[in-house]
Amino acid sequence: MMCLRCNLGGRLLTYTYMHHNTNKKKLLKCSKQAQGTLVKVMSMIEENKYCPEIIQQVDSVIGLLKATKRELLSGHLDTCVAHQLIDNKKKAIDELIKIYNLSN
Fold this sequence. Notes:
Elements: E1 5-8, E2 11-14, H1 20-46, H2 51-87, H3 89-103
Antiparallel strand pairs: 1-2
Helix pairs in contact: 1-2, 2-3
């Protein structure tokens, strides 16, 4: 999927994958949807809309951002971390632990 550029073992590698553009488009679409919904949330707050309606939109933003995060993580694991496991297993494990801690 993604990670066009990853630092592996002190050297910068560039990956190009056939489906990269598709995933990039998917990530941008999801991120832009989250942005648009967040703007809607702010507007709803300014207009004193009914709280449960605002909460529903907030949940929508959270879901879109979580989907974006999952897609980014999946691509990173599929490319950079997979290659790093071959190149430098300890560094890959350290990075996996760092990513895990960021996710919690």
